[in-house]
Amino acid sequence: MASNKPNTVSRFTYRFLKPYIGNIILFFALTLFATLFSIASILSVSNFLQVLFGTQSDIPMANPSFVEDILAQVYRYAITYGKVNALWIFSGLIFVIYLLKDVFTYLAMYFISSTRNKIVRNIRNALFKQYTTLSIAFLSHYKKGDLLSRTSTDVIEYDESVLKSLQSLIAGIVMVVLYFCVLMYIDWRLTLLTLAIFPVFAALVSLISRKLKRDSKHLQQKSALLTSMIEETISGLKIIKSFTAIALMNKRFAHFNQSFTRLKTKIYRRVDAASPQSEFFGNCMVIGLLLLGSQRVIGTTPTLSAEMFVVYLILFVLIIKPSKDIATSFYNIRKGAGCVSRMNEILLSKAYINEPKNASSFPLLETGIRFDNVNFEYNADTPVLRNINVLFEAGKTTAIVGASGGGKSTLVDLIPKFYSPTSGSIFFDNININSLKAKDIRDNLAIVTQDTILFNDTIANNISFGNDTFSKEDIISAAQIANAEEFILSLPDAYQTIIGDSGNMLSGGQRQRLSIARAVLRNAQVLILDEATSALDSTSERLVQEAITRITSNKTSIIIAHRLSTIIHADKIIVIDQGEIKEVGNHQSLYAKGGIYTRLCDMQEIH
């Protein structure tokens, strides 16, 4: 699970920011130069005003600052060319300085935008990789919409709330520090006096932002649930319409959406409060500054020239915005902590299938796959399989039958290491499954499931899925064995036809035959058929069954079936009931026992 430590955001950000530290330093340097040229352009205004109004001080300054000394030298140099020419000189100088400021600002944004996009890309890649490598048992605890939300809504929220705020924070700190240094040079007493109000401002920011992290995480969770509701509704639209539940679903969604909107509005109001509050305090400080600074300009012994006071005011007004950006950035970083926590829940998870360090090679099966007193449970108090002892003999067909929910699919899911047994051992010949890598096992398996998984791609690419080295002839041969070529050639682009999301442009029987063609092309030692014909009409079932008969020949085949007519010729039939193996034998011997298998056959009128 994700860490609850307060520096979770900083750790998460550093992990993905680390490869781009050079870009961050470059952004810092470019922002530094942009700010320096901005300050230089403002200071040049002092000389421009002196020339324009002819206000070279008649009253000697008391302890002129270092900045004023430099500006006085620049003024004396320019005024020697005459008043009009001096104005042109200063105008040209300000123009060049502003141009350089804008160039450096653009370059800073150019590099940081690219960096932000790359960080977001890497976070999405990391999440996607976790989804493909984490155990199915772990991911099954989450709704699909929730997992989708973490790679979309949460990543976008992180970019807007954290990365963008860090960008503003770095730029703001650079500007505030440089502006502050110049203000200190111009009049350090006046600067320190106005600075005394800042602790009050910081305390107010902390008070308002305290609840943002908790509320933001709650918002992200609600957003994920909202996505899940939409995904479930679209997937189950036929059922919703057939049961006339449209009004019910609309009411349920509207109620939840209203709750989501209220929470989002609450958070946004708290975040948006940062800007006007900081602006109000900034304006109060400017008013106080006008009163205090005027005394230093018009006093009997001036300590600040009128031109420099104007420059001081401009700089002080300019420092308000980056100060406000710093405050807002802290708000938004707190706001983004919720999505970081949710992404870390996936990224920091160690729910992997344990892999051996010194793995054995997958054997050429001679004996078969043996379950030795295997037990399995999803939760500690919910046993699914108990005391499973069985041998799936090499080169033979073993069928698994039983009532729904009895543990048939779970049993075969242990073979490809989708799950790990709670206790007991599984052997491929005499090699323990824990000595084999999951990839090596899966490379030697071909699986055809009831819920056919196809992709929005061409028929050829779906058949050759997972391996792009197969030739066109190999693909065609596999399609022929699977009884699929006839319908493939009738499609507009034959093998290059795009079949839509999950193959929804094809019928159930056509999708299943493509799935079988994919298994044929894999030519694996072990073939697992999980209720491959249960959802098909009689014509499609016959075609699929013919294909299955071809591909199971001389393979170590494991078939889960509800339609017992498809497995009466299996070499071995295993009857599972409530997670335990109750009967083992062939069709004739099991039917003669008069037990569970006999009752199943009688229900389907099979003798």
Explain what you see.
The protein has 607 residues and is an alpha/beta fold. The protein folds into 2 domains: 8-347, ABC transporter type 1, transmembrane domain (ABC transporter transmembrane region fold), CATH 1.20.1560; 368-603, Rossmann fold. The chain is 62% helix and 11% strand. A 6-stranded mixed β-sheet has the order 6-7-8-3-9-10. Strands 2-1-4-5 form a 4-stranded antiparallel β-sheet, with no helix packed on it. Strand 4 (423-428) and strand 5 (431-432) form a beta hairpin. Mean pLDDT is 76; it is low at 1-6 and 56-65.
Summarize the structure.
This protein has helices spanning 8-17, 21-53, 66-79, 83-133, 136-139, 144-151, 153-195, 198-209, 212-235, 237-242, 246-272, 274-298, 306-347, 408-413, 438-443, 459-463, 472-481, 485-489, 508-522, 538-551, 587-593, 596-603, and strands spanning 368-379, 382-393, 397-401, 423-428, 431-432, 445-449, 526-530, 556-560, 572-577, 580-585. With 607 residues, the protein is α/β, with parallel strands linked by helices. The longest helix is centred in the first third of the chain and has 51 residues, at 83-133.
